[in-house]
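Could you join me in thinking about how sequence relates to backbone shape in a protein? To get us started, please write out a protein record for me. Would you write everything just below, so we can both look at the same thing?
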Amino acid sequence: MTSSALYSPWRPLVIFYGICCYSATAFLSSTPFCPRGVPKSIRSRSFVSSRLASTMTVTAADITTAGKLGEAETSALSDKYKSVLYLATDKGADKGIEPNGFASLRGLTTRHLPVDVKDGLSLQLATDALQALDELPAPALVVCSSGGRASAVQCLRKATEEGWTKDQTLAYALEMKLPFVKNPSLKDWVLATVAAREYRDELPLLFRPLYEETSWTYTFLLGCPVTKEAILIDPVDLTVERDLQVIKEMGLTLVAALNTHCHADHVTGSGLLAQKVPGCKSMIAKISGAKASVHLESGDRVRFGRRYVEARATPGHTNGCMTFVTDDMKMAFTGDALLIRGCGRTDFQQGSPETMFESIWTQIFSLPHETSVYPGHDYRGRLMSTIGEEKRFNSRLSGKSREEFIEIMNNLKLAYPKKIDVALPANLVDGLLAS
């Protein structure tokens, strides 16, 4: 090598270029942030200005989410984005942009998709939101009044693109601290939408509703179509043999007998079933104080083959009430918490109208409109309803404030339960008092 080449005036630029290329290669090949349980294909990209950064909740791919924006932020949007998906309803204080909500947007491709968290969440709405994002030009901004709905839609988009399961989606949302996770309705909306895709190729759940006429009690049989393992929800002692015959005829193996609560109107058959069927476990909420093979906590999953139900604490009728929600979130077995066009009484067994109201709105009415509701009883021959129907037509709950609901429940003046003095002591020992 000649001295002129060694000391060329271009030498510093060549060295600088080499350092830049190495640094860029190292950066692009580094492992992106990856929450536990989520595929490592996530890489976030920000399109926001420093002025907007304080209002942003999360950025990912070509989507940025935001809470309420002021006039200065709004005027700068066209410099950074090509489109806006606006989720606020613009009713009352629910505006995502000051001062005039959606009408304040100018110079961008926009779409207004009102998302009413209390009364409007459905799987169809989720589909509409995803379709809107597919049609809007990138980069896109998703706006609501607090960032919760926007983060929910962004999470849905990521989960759909990545093909995540329900558990992976929740893991991502928790790791990223997305604000929608703190809202039970938005959380259930996102997870139910993901579950609808996750289970779309599965064989249909085996399902049989059974009935005991003297106590007007429904018992529900659920089975895995692949392994043939099954569970019974709210079995009655008088119909144990009938239930076992149905299970035999369907070629199922009973692995669990679940109680939604410690009943006062009939004696449970869960203890008898645990005695008669090898491997079958009786189950009830731990807080109920009743005996069982397994005591459940809120959030526990009871598995039968490749399927499961999630136990949700829904106290109010009794302190140990649970609602069981299927893994695909299409069915909710509400016991005596939510009934069809009504709800369970709250005047005995640690009942509380205040607690009942909270339970129904945060653990049951948080489910999408399409979710089917199967109560423990009905006195008018009805088998099931939906979340959407009950939100609209349930006279004790629809449009009622907490105070109005409490007033209704405290003035029902119901008769003393006829079988409580027999049923309750028996059910505290898994229905096996006589033995």
Observations:
- Residues 1-59 have pLDDT under 50 and may be disordered.
- The chain has two domains: 53-198, 206-427.
- The first strand starts at residue 56 and ends at 60.
- Residues 55 and 426 are 57 Å apart (CA to CA).
